[in-house]
Each structure stands twice: as structure tokens, then as C-alpha cells.
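Many introductory courses stop at the sequence. We go one step further.
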Amino acid sequence: MRSCSFRVCLLVLLTLVFTACGRVVYRTAYNQAEYLAMRELDSYFDLNDSQERQVAGRVRALHRWHRYQELPRYAATLRQLRALAEDGLEPAEVDWLFQSGRNFRDRIYSQVQPHSVEILAALSDEQIDHLAGALAESNEELEEELARAPSERLNDRAERTTDFLDDWTGGLRPEQRHELRELSARLPDTTDARLQLRRERQGRLISTLRAHDRDGLRALMQAWLLQADATQPAYYRQANEAWRARARDFVLGLDARLTAQQRRHFLARLDELIADLDELSHNM
């Protein structure tokens, strides 16, 4: 599974920044991230009052670190992206962008890892049972997605992608939408691999927690968070590599199809996002 501690503690802090929602929405959500993360944590762990106070302190520290250390890094990366995108992206520049995303992920994982061990090790047997049920429930969305026809899943993904790009380009032309939908259809569907990995890791986590094996728990969190890529099973790593290769083609294909007006609109949206990151990183 994607580490549940990462998912509930900090995924909201990262993804909300880059959402396509309105600027007021994601700025407000980021400022409320501690509250949102605590709600999510409680839904997974059913925390008691003492645990809630302790976990709240950890979430507060992580949020503060993310605001003052990571948001400026995001802004700096987006400034570099903006400079590169002014005259069109090269394949090596897209690779740099993807690697930057993995570097951000790894920095978050390294911060979350020690907290995840302490939070998980403190769970009672009843809370572990609650977590097992919550994790199983969290898989239902992917299970329902897999039950749909592959062509239907790919079509919906292409529609979401072009709708997002409509916003960031100021509107796609009909021929661009058609061409980008075709490029999107070439992206591998990794739903099956993601669900398989989640189930495998959820099973290992729950069995380790039920054995109250603190050393084993620490080893799992170190492997999954501090060696995230190296410890992926072969089937998942291959699916990821195939997806990244096609995603690279998609980004380059999109970049090549932008008109001068659409590129200006995209750069203006980047400027807005950079300004928001600068503001968020200086406010509390």
C-alpha cells in the first residue's frame, strides 16, 4: 500500500497545493491542513484523547516543516519550469521535472518515517482492527474502478485530463482535444498494479502490528518510505516505468501543440501558483 501514515499525514499538504481548484480553495485548504489531516488520521485509527494530543503535535510539526522548508522548494522548481517552458520543453527537461517530483516525495517520506513508527506502534488491538477495516474500505474505490471496462476507464481519464488542460491553457481547440485524448489513451492503466501493491503492503502492515513487532514495523517503514523505489516489487516498478515513459511523451506532445496564446496562459497560471506558494510559505 502507499504508506497509510504518509497518506493521512501529508498527502493533503502536497496535493492541495497543485490542485486545479480555485486559488482561494487550495490556499484555505492548505492553511487548514492540520485539521484535515487529523480528521483523516482519526478515521483510520480511532484515536483516544491522549493519542490525539500527541499526534496533533506531530502533524503540527510536519505541517510547519512543509510550509517553511518545502513550499519554497516547490516555488523555486516552478520558476525553473517557467523559464524552460517559455520556448518549449526538451526531453531531458521533462525528465528533470519528473525527478524533482520524486525528490519532493522522498523528502516528505524521510520526515514522516519516524513519526509513522511512533503513531502505529501505539495502536491498541482494537485500533489495529479498526485500521484493517478502514484500509479495506479505502480499497473499494480502486476495486470498483477495476470492475469497469478498461476502455471506459481510459476514456474517463482522457476526459479528466483534457478538462484540466482546458483550464491551464485557456481552452483547447477541438483538434487538440482529439490528439491529446489519443496521447492519453497510450498511458498504461496501472490500477491493477496499484491495488495489488496496496493489498500486499496492507497485509504485511496489519500482521506486523498485530504481532506488536516494533522492530519489524520500523523495518517496514524504513523500506517503504526511505527506500521507496528500491523496495517496489518488480511488477509495480515495471508498471511505473512504463507509465513514466508514456507520460514523458504526453508532456512533450502537449508542449509541442500549444499555441503562443495558450503558452502565455499557462505561464500566467504558473506565475499565480508561484505567488501563492510564496505567500503560503511566509504566512501561518
